[in-house]
Amino acid sequence: MAKKITPYKDSQLDKKKQVEQMFDTISTNYDGLNRVISFGIDVKWRRNVVKMVSETNPQSVLDIATGTGDLAISMAKTGAKEIVGLDLSEGMLSVGRKKIEEEKLTGRIEMIQGDSEALPFEDNRFDAITVAFGVRNFENLERGLSEILRVLKPGGIFVILETSVPTKFPFKQGYGIYTKYLLPLIGKMFSKDKVAYSYLSESAAAFPYGEKLNNILRKTGFINVRHKPQTMGVATIYAASK
Length: 242
Fold this sequence. Notes:
The protein has helices at 15-26, 30-37, 41-54, 70-74, 90-102, 141-151, 171-190, 196-206, 211-220, and strands at 60-64, 82-87, 109-113, 126-132, 152-163, 223-230, 235-241.
């Protein structure tokens, strides 16, 4: 990322701690506000990720930056016997654990607090690893991707779902107006953290997407790298293997 974007520009904390603090603060209304901001389309994007992972018949799945566990919970449909959700924010994880209990998946999905750039797992541990709307929050993208490569089994699949910027008219212009003006306004109106959604839109705009991210994945050591834009390019699914 050419420009380092952090949630709280006046904070002395490093990006990792700022991200943890931000998500702890917005955790209780994150799910509802996310549905409003994305018009509910993010649900379809996650379904596409689950379908992609399901085709590999994984026995073990790690969902990094799991947040409140939406994708981890959906991964139960893959038939995986073990699903682990990892996140920096204990606030987000606590919301996720309640959702897992309501879905009666407590014995199947484990939610743990951890650092994506220092994963607490041995080498070649998981058949599939996913990250939805989380890689742009990594403090050191290459280090985080290297850790993911380390704990992914040879032949395993790695899938990223991340926001991106449409390239075609008029979607590019409409997306710019929405993320620069409307998204932060909605965040300020409904979130306890007035800067959180400004950060999320700024970080999305600054993050490398498309072939740029593909090249970073290849440089890290991933193979079979490919990507598929979603909904006019406002999000992209990336898939790679080891």
